[in-house]
Sequence to fold (147 residues):
Amino acid sequence: MKKLLILLSLAAVVMFAGCAENALLHNIDAAVYTFELVNFPADDGDYAIPGDFNGWNNGDGEGGVPITLTDGAGTSEEVNITVSTFIFSITELGTYNRPWYPATEGNSVDGFSGDSWNFQIEDLVLGTRGTITIDGSTVPATITVSN
Fold:
């Protein structure tokens, strides 16, 4: 009986340790940010912000991050982000077309096309709130994270 109790205790420790190692996000709050585009060289209209923080959802289904541009500017609704480093882009809603490229460029090269039409954020502090601003007036675009 004593050996069985020890064995069950060890199994419980391994189970909980394994769960924490794989997920790494237990009990950590998401970062909550809006995306703001300024001086962006794209026609007025509806766009999406897909990325590896949302499964590259380009707005043609639930979970996409829509943003409307008017005169090169727009602000998204708040987005929950649960990863500290991620790549994203700005696409026409429901497509992966990037009509603003090559008038400006992102700071991350697309692994499939080799084009610099993605953006990368590193070391975003989870549990914070703020704004991710992409200024399209420079090449590559200037990205500012403020909270």
User: Anything to note?
Assistant: Confidence is low (pLDDT under 50) at residues 3-23.
